[in-house]
Design goal:
Layout lengths: L3 E7 L9 H10 L7 E5 L2 H8 L4 E11 L9 E5 H11 L9 H10 L6 E9 L10 H4 L2 H18 L18 E3 L2 E3 L7
Parallel strand pairs: 1-2, 1-3, 3-5
Antiparallel strand pairs: 4-5, 6-7
Length: about 190
Amino acid sequence: MGLSVRIVGCGRSFMGDDQAGLLVARKLQQSTSLRADVFCDEAPGDRLAGELDENVELLVIVDAALADGNHPAGSSERIDYRTGADALTERLHGSTHTLGVVEGLKLAEVLGVLPRHVWIYVIFGTDFERRPHVSPTVGSEIVPLARRIESDVDHWLASRAGPPGTDLADGPAEPNPITQPGGTKPIAFRRP
């Protein structure tokens, strides 16, 4: 059986920048080369644990969070859930979902269905009021973030194609860049 990758774009339609995760997922659904199942979910915490199974090896979540002094609007960050759960809780506090992404991941972990590899891509925004479109700053990051996720997933899948009995995805740490408008700032990507 091949490796299974599931991508879940989270957000709330018609809620400004909060719909960024949904828009990234919709862009990924248009890809003809992405080897992953891609879903959009407006209540991910409620359903996350129930939709995972033992065949999912990599879970990718895409969600929006409020920008701050360290994370300007339009920037994005990839967090490894296994090593960065504290950062995730800090970024996604005050969820607009019924049960938040963090709570859904914790529930999946308690139920024993959380995949070994979980990445959360956070895209930072400032406008979470009722409106049909994301802000221009966040909107300009949708396509680049979708491309980055597709590239990261392709790289991860290629790294898993090593000799039998090896798990190359657990090899040396990869950079975990925070993408900011006009450039990148590298951050160490730590593994346990």
